[in-house]
Amino acid sequence: MEVWDEDDFHLQNPAGEIPEVAYWSGESGLSLPAPAPFRDDNISDHETRLQLGISEYSRIRLLKELDATKKDPLSHCSCGPVGNDIFEWQGVIMGPECTPYEGGLFFLSIHIPEDYPNSPPEIKFKTKVIHPNIDEDGTIHLDILWDRWTPVLTIEWVLLSICSLLADPNADISFNPIAILYRNNREEYNKKTKEWTRKYAMC
């Protein structure tokens, strides 16, 4: 199994191409591919899952997700396990074009619970970033990482959703200082965000 770290973590498809099939486009113009439900006819039966055990089923599911990302890599984000631990991954996102994050590479830690996909992965930004929906410690306030998670989603799809969140913050539900700045002074917000992107995401 491959080892992923910030020194040699390479995007699998750095061409910057946006997938043609899209279901969402925010004010930034970033389009994302429609999520395909994860299906596995070989291990979808409930009794089979019980026989395998929760953690073993999770391991098989993660290996299949990893194989899918290698066969059909995305252009602006990538992910993979750290060392030999299938439950510890790292992700990287290219800053969306036409946003204050453009040109940056943002690394994320991905901890996967042993009952995955019944529970969502725990994903945090490792790279410092200014954003209305991201806390100082990297915690991401995204609904599908909390109450709107469903087992048909994949880690790759969550990364795509984080890409869209970078491009189009949901500042109306946040009341931290960055969200207030975003709502009241967009020019100053963009300036500050660009400075942090240059300082922390372009090293």
Automatic annotation (TrEMBL):
<keyword id="KW-0067">ATP-binding</keyword>
<dbReference type="GO" id="GO:0005524">
    <property type="term" value="F:ATP binding"/>
</dbReference>
<dbReference type="Pfam" id="PF00179">
    <property type="entry name" value="UQ_con"/>
</dbReference>
<protein>
    <submittedName>
        <fullName>Ubiquitin-conjugating enzyme E2 D1-like isoform X2</fullName>
    </submittedName>
</protein>
<keyword id="KW-0808">Transferase</keyword>
<dbReference type="InterPro" id="IPR016135">
    <property type="entry name" value="UBQ-conjugating_enzyme/RWD"/>
</dbReference>
<comment type="pathway">
    <text>Protein modification; protein ubiquitination.</text>
</comment>
<keyword id="KW-0833">Ubl conjugation pathway</keyword>
<keyword id="KW-0547">Nucleotide-binding</keyword>
<feature type="domain" description="UBC core">
    <location>
        <begin position="57"/>
        <end position="202"/>
    </location>
</feature>
<dbReference type="GO" id="GO:0061631">
    <property type="term" value="F:ubiquitin conjugating enzyme activity"/>
</dbReference>
<dbReference type="InterPro" id="IPR000608">
    <property type="entry name" value="UBC"/>
</dbReference>
